[in-house]
Amino acid sequence: MKCVEGRFSMEWLMTFMVLLLTISALRCPTWRPSVYVPVSDMEEEVWACPVSEPSTLPLCPLVPTGLPRYVGVKRRVNQTLLEHIASEVEPGGRWRPKHCRAQQSLVVLVPYRDRAMHLALFLQHMHPFLQSQLLDYSIYIVEQSAEHDFNRAKLFNIGFVEALKDRGDACCFVFHDV
Question: N or C, where is the chain less crowded by C-beta within 10 Å?
Fold first, then answer.
């Protein structure tokens, strides 16, 4: 350590701060502590937020059995899979399990413009991911017109207002990107 009159030199302090910031950024890029819930604690950590529509179906489990621990990322659009997914999704992008009543209601908002392949890959991954959790969910694609600059925050706000009109019972909103 370099000392100047009993103090650390400015050069040494700057080097130390850069090193500390680099290590912190690598450990936690959002600057917040990560929240990790072990699978064994999942039942205690997941809360129900039932959909308000009446139904005689039994409740879906909060944590379905057989959820995959790892889902590989496919980098090519599978048009057949997308067509199959589209046939099972209700108009407006809503899906809910047919054999049980979901205990969570979710809305995913996605601002979009000019990235058709990215959007297709996103939908190809997100629909099976959300369906495996037996959620009542809707995905809103909020598209920016070509005549205006892309404004992600404004699209999120518009999507949120529109989703509340359709899905006022949703208790979780995910603001996503493609």
Answer: N
